[in-house]
Amino acid sequence: MFVASGTALIAATYGLVRLAYGLVLPDVQHALGFGAALAGWTSAGSSVLYCVGAFVGFVAAPARPRLLVVLAGASAGAGAVGMATSPTAIVFALSAVFASAGAGLASPALVTLVQLAVRRDTARAQAVVNSGTGPGLVVAGLLALVLLPEWRVVWWTAAAVTVVAAAAVLLAGRPGDAGRARTTVRPSARPPRSWRTAHRRVVVVSLVLGAGSAAVWTYGRTLLVDAGAPAPLSVTAWVALGVGGAAVAVTARWTGRLRARSAWAVTASAVAVATATLALVPQVTGVALGACVVFGWGYTAATGALIAWTTELDADRASAGTSLLFVVLVLGQALGAGVAGAAVDTVGTGATFLGAAVVTAVGAVAALPGRRNAGGSAGGTPVVRASGA
To answer: Which domain range does residue 8 map to?
Structure first.
């Protein structure tokens, strides 16, 4: 029950709230009237506030994971309500920004709670919980197929699901876990310099993936609409992103045999190839849908590789490492969304997506040089990988 409720909270805060922004963007733009540049900066602002939430999680998750769950449900739920009731583009934008804090708070809290609540096969439990983004995107896409252009109802539904999921995590978990966290983890102990040094490469590639993936998350549906795809098909593409993310649970056994760096290179390359494919042939329905599946799988598995990488470097600080890397990832998305918004208005969506693909490919290759990490080993213990950043 705990794993199921944790998965549901990731699905809600990521798939239904944070990442569904791009899904309903064309309809919201038509109803409230704001352009591509404002849409890009809204996405960038959402990424920044996500980082604020993740930083709070970095500090508080070891000792107060249940409080973070409460804050995650409250912020994501309240933000979704604000979007549902927004009378103007500015109110919608501010609500979207505020809602993103919920995802940043949820991830580190659940990493800690899973470590405390699941005694056996903890790595697989982490994989299942953090793969919730995929099912969340599928549900968001199905809601959009049924409800759009009534986008306000989509956000009301997202708010309700988020609050229920957060309550389920609190009910399924044990209140004593917070006390155990305070006695088993020393939150006041700052990671040593060697820990920060060991994370330099993974921090850089996290930033690059975030920047390169922002175009699809913000303008993926817009690209297909501009290419002539009817609204139901463009929404189906979003469902395909979620299907790809959900497929990570199926491929986790295979990726779990890879070193973290190798898993990163494979999955980030998949993101780059899928982004380039969307840029080149968005009008070919079957190819575009297939590219969305590949992108969803690659992105979700790549963010899971970040968890594996930091765990290989220092398993005792896995929640802190996860918070750090997810903050950097989403800072990259903030940067990428802002640049993409300006580029779409200047050179068009196709050229913007090609640039994003190149950036992502650079991040995939950057993981490969060097055979040894800071700890002196080539790879570390294989870990099952999946994530919901």
So the answer is: 2-185+193-366
